[in-house]
Design goal:
It is a single chain. The chain is mainly alpha-helical. The protein has two helices and no strands. Helix 1 runs antiparallel to helix 2 (25-51). The two termini are 22 Å apart.
């Protein structure tokens, strides 16, 4: 989970450095996307564990 969030926030920081923004919008959006993907992945894994 932490790796996914870290990678998405790192990508957001890179995009903010490449395309400057006063609000650092890329890091905010991509961090939230990373958190959503991480929670989806955890939810999917827990469903598989509960089935067995």
């Amino acid at each position: 989970m932490g790796v996914i969030v870290f990678l998405f926030s790192y990508l957001g920081n890179w995009l903010d450095a490449k395309y400057p923004n006063p609000d650092t919008i890329y890091v905010k959006i991509l961090t939230l996307v990373g958190v959503a993907i991480a929670f989806y992945n955890i939810n999917r894994q827990l469903k598989d564990i509960n089935k067995s």
